Amino acid sequence: MTRSRTLFSFGFAYGAASHTCSLPIFLGILLLPLVAGNYVLAVLSVLVYGLAIAVLVVVMLLLGQRVFAATRRAGAWLMRIAAVLFIGTGAFLFYYFAQNYGAYLNPAPVASVAAATPGHRYQLTEGAGSTGYPYQPRTLAIPARQPIQVAITDHIGGCLLSTIFEGLGPGGNSVEVTVPVGTTRVVPLYAPHPGHYAFHCGGEMYSGTVVAR
């Protein structure tokens, strides 16, 4: 009985230690869909990751010493790759949460996001549950040559704290609005002529289109 407990403890400790070696890869494949707001993809990523580990274990058991020898030869490179992924993941986490923290310390000026001129009112949601893409809707249809308002609600943060509307600000310039997580801000927009106008997050990772008719 004591021997069984010892083996179990050793196996558990070895598994935990081995998992830390692949932790950067695990965090990398998990964070991207979470930041994008795609929780279904995040769950699938975890399942695929587990399946890949299981396949790797089975292959190593079947091929035995040949796989161990090849892995031992590539060990130095694997450690370097894991270190780079670990540092990159840490830098991304620091950047992501620093953006959220900075938004609360330095909220957007009231004048830039307060009540707009009377007109049409539209809603843009960032990180809308399990809808997949961070911006919902990805296309806004608005009237041309009329002042409108867009209420932006942020549920995700990151680069989506800041949204830039190209060509829809005063004088045909771009207009930028910063929305802290869990809040709603209203930004006035004006399309000087019919056409397609782009909007995107501050990091230009996600985008959408405003169609003026």
Task: Set out the fold topology.
Blueprint: H1 2-21, H2 23-35, H3 39-63, H4 65-73, H5 75-105, H6 110-113, E1 120-126, E2 135-136, E3 139-142, E4 147-154, E5 162-165, E6 175-178, E7 184-190, E8 195-201, E9 207-212
Parallel strand pairs: 1-4, 3-9
Antiparallel strand pairs: 1-2, 4-7, 5-6, 5-8, 8-9
Helix pairs in contact: 2-3, 2-5
What's the gist of this structure?
The protein is an alpha+beta fold and 213 residues long.
Largest sheet: 5 strands, mixed
Q: Walk across the major sheet and give the strand order.
A: 3-9-8-5-6
Report the end-to-end length measured between terminal Cα atoms: 77 Å
What is the chains' assembly state?
Answer: single chain
Rg over C-alpha atoms, rounded to the nearest angstrom:
24 Å
Count of strand segments: 9
User: What is the number of helices?
Assistant: 6
Q: Please provide the ordered H/E string of secondary-structure elements.
A: HHHHHHEEEEEEEEE
Low-pLDDT parts are: 101-118
- Helix/strand/pairing class, anyone? alpha+beta
- Residue share in β-strands: 15-25%
The total domain count is 2
- Determine the mean pLDDT: 75
